[in-house]
């Protein structure tokens, strides 16, 4: 696993891939991601609701199961606050893209908050269909739309959006440079870009890779969650710097998401969770089996929950 690489192959590999091999691996990865979310999204919505991402918890919170959905909303608000997204009627975002939109929870929330037009993209046809249905049911069909599309080749013109939002989709991207380049391309001059994603820890001075035992944890997670090789927060910052973006900043929110995975495991072990898992299929079951490794990765500081934000120059 090329842990420090960006723009890496879609699966942990030691041999060098030809361009054709790399394309084949990326297509296989995209198919796996789409099928994983086609299969598991209904189960997730049934148990956790419309937001398919971590919650943000204060360090002194006493967490009850009912608190987790409000923590997911808090994650959205904390990301907006960190990026200094304005609520001023003259400065608030009017056009938003949600890259890796799930079933559209963030899109609908942002559309209501700002009165903005929002476009969501996902690899999963099931997610796109459900997201559009929820938008219609919530009276937002005129503001929000969803489609199946590749984040590395977005179906939007240059400079269309003044808020570019990626909530926990970057970890699925096999080419991180192409990913952030596309986020930048569709951003309007002066737009804010928000990336909230799973990373591995930054390497220490003198290190060229993670330790073998750390790579072993990440490789097991990759195979079950359809993830390519991970990169660090520092890698993302360097990529954004290479694209001449401004006001780049990042933070480690690992401590603020710590209650999330124990809660997911607890719900998975409930009667509702077990029956939902069995109905959803093998990919979901395999994903559930590696959830304890997410907790282990966070506890051993190899996994980091990161936010990286920046602005496109005017």
Note down, in words, how this protein is organized.
This protein is α/β, with parallel strands linked by helices. The protein is built from eleven helices and seven strands. The protein is globular. A seven-stranded mixed sheet has the order 3-2-1-4-5-7-6, sandwiched between helices. α6 packs antiparallel against α11.
* Sheet with the most strands, sense and barrel status: 7 strands, mixed
Mean of the pLDDT scores? 89
Number of strands: 7
Taken in chain order, the helices and strands follow as HHEHEHEEHEHHEHHHHE
Strand neighbour order, sheet with most strands:
3-2-1-4-5-7-6
DSSP helix fraction: 40-55%
C-alpha end-to-end distance: 38 Å
Strand share of the residues? Answer: 15-25%
Estimated radius of gyration: 18 Å
Uncertain segments: 1-15
Quick take:
The chain is of the alpha/beta class and 314 residues long. The chain has eleven helices and seven strands.
Detail the topology: elements first, then pairings.
Layout: H1 19-48, H2 68-82, E1 95-99, H3 105-114, E2 117-122, H4 125-137, E3 144-148, E4 161-167, H5 176-186, E5 187-200, H6 212-225, H7 233-242, E6 246-252, H8 260-268, H9 271-280, H10 282-289, H11 291-299, E7 303-311
Parallel strand pairs: 1-2, 1-4, 2-3, 4-5
Antiparallel strand pairs: 5-7, 6-7
Protein name: Gamma-tocopherol methyltransferase
Keywords: Alkaloid metabolism, Methyltransferase, S-adenosyl-L-methionine, Transferase
Region (SAM motif I): 96-105
Output the keywords.
single chain; 314 residues; alpha/beta; seven-stranded mixed beta sheet; 11 helices; disordered N terminus; S-adenosyl-L-methionine; alkaloid metabolism; methyltransferase
